[in-house]
C-alpha cells in the first residue's frame, strides 16, 4: 500500500515537473524510487541454492581446503572459530583445515595444541603454519600454493564462528558450473554488546539481505565478505600472482582482498550468495575500531571502482549494477550538500520530510532483518535492535558518508590500518 502511494506520488511529481510547476528534484527522486523498487524485487526473488541427488554426490567428491589466516586475534575467538569448523555437519570426504599464523604477537601454543587434539579426535587433517608478518594475502597464498589438489578454497576469518551447516550450504551453489564464488551471510556475534554493535547489526545484516541478495539473484555479487567466502580453487591458482602483487599507483595493496577475489570470479563466471550459509563475526565495539575498519573498506572500494570499470564486461549485469550504484551515490551526495547544507544556509530551514522519508524507507527495508532467526538472540532483542532504525539510518547517511569521503581521498594509503594488537576479546569457552 505504501509503495503504491509512493509510486502515485512520484508519477504526479514528474508530471508537474514536466509542466514547469514541480520541484527541481522530481526526476532524481523518481529515479531513486525506481532503483529501490527494482532492488527490493530482486532481493525477494533470491532463493537458497539446492542440489539434486546426483549433484550432492559430486559435491561430496570435492576436495575442500578451509583456510584460516591469523594475525593478533584473540585466542578465545580463534579457538571458537576452529572448533566451529570441526563441528560442521556432514563434513566432506576430503576436507583439510589450514591455519596460517601471520607473525602474530599472541602466543597460540595452548590454542594450537587443543585444536590439533580435537581435529585428531574427529579424524580431520590439519596444519598450522607460522610465517613472518606479510599480510593476509600472503597467508592465503601459502595455503593455496601448498594444496594444488584442492577443488574449493574456503576462507574463514580468525574471529569467525560458523553455523554448523555453513560449509555444507556454502558448497551447494558449486553444483552449477557457472558459479565461481559464493558468499556467506555474516552476522555480528557480539551484536548485543552495546549500542554501537546493535547499530552495526541493524546496518550490516539488512544490507546483505537487500544489496547482496539483489545482486546474487543476477549472479553479480560485487564483494564477498572474507569472513566466510568460497571459491573454485582453480580461480585462485590462475590469479595468484596478481592477487599477491596487486599495486595501486605503484603502492602494494594489502586490504580489499575479498573484493578482488570476487572480481576474478565475475570475470570468469558468476558470483552468488548462499542465504543459508551463516557465519558469526566480532564487529567493532568502539568508535575508533569502527571508523578505522570502515575507512579501510572505503579505500578498498575506491581502488576497486577503477578495476571493475576496466575489467568487467559491459555485457554483464555486474558492470551496470556497479555503474548505477555510483550514479546513485553521486546524486545522493549532491542532494546532501544542496538540501542539508546550502539550502539551510539560504533559507534557515530544513523540510521535515527530508528526515522522515529516508527513515520510513529504512524501516521498510529493515524488515528483512527479521528473516534471520537467531538462536542466540530473542525476538525481543531483535525488536530492540530494529527500533534503532532511525538512529542507524542517520548514522549511515551522515557519519559513514563523511568517513567514506575521507576513505576516498586517502585511498593512496594502502596499508591494512587495523589490529596492531587484539581489539575485540571474549571470555574463553
Q: Would you kindly provide a written description of the structure presented here, covering whatever features stand out?
A:
With 429 residues, the chain is α/β, with parallel strands linked by helices. It has a domain at 23-61 and 160-416. The protein has 16 helices and ten strands. It has helices at residues 2-18, 26-45, 53-60, 75-86, 109-122, 136-146, 166-171, 195-217, 233-238, 240-244, 257-268, 287-311, 317-347, 353-366, 379-386, 389-409, and strands spanning 63-70, 94-102, 126-131, 152-156, 161-162, 179-188, 228-232, 247-248, 251-252, 270-281. The strands form two sheets. Strands 3-2-1-4-7-6-10-5 form an eight-stranded mixed β-sheet, sandwiched between helices. A two-stranded antiparallel ribbon has the order 8-9. Strand 1, helix 4 and strand 2 (94-102) form a beta-alpha-beta unit. Helix 4 (75-86) runs parallel beside helix 5 and helix 11 (257-268) packs parallel to helix 12. The longest helix is centred in the last third of the chain and has 31 residues, at 317-347. The radius of gyration is 22 Å and the shape is globular. The N and C termini lie far apart (49 Å). The model has no long low-confidence stretch (mean pLDDT 88).
